[in-house]
Amino acid sequence: MAGEGDHTRADLDVIKEMGTGLTKVKKAFEGLGKLSGKYGDEFGHRGLADKFEDFAGNWEITREKLTGEVEALAKIAKEAAKAYEDIDHQLAEAIRNARDSENSQRGK
Length: 108
Description:
The chain is built from two helices and no strands.
């Protein structure tokens, strides 16, 4: 059981890093410019330009959905890490209180 605390600490760090990383992905998605309406004349072929416009429009819709989902996952990861830390602190406090109570009972 000696290494369990270290394992738990590592897991909490991974969860926190996941929340931070997902927030960065969300910001990157939000920072991307729109593709539609920008490159139509560059293709030199109307059919190819139309296909690109279809792709660009679909990507913008998909990126918006992904951004929302990534934001939700980031929030969940951050809240989970906070909840686990709070529980860890509460358990540690309960153990300290139980030991203090036991020690004071022995001293009587």
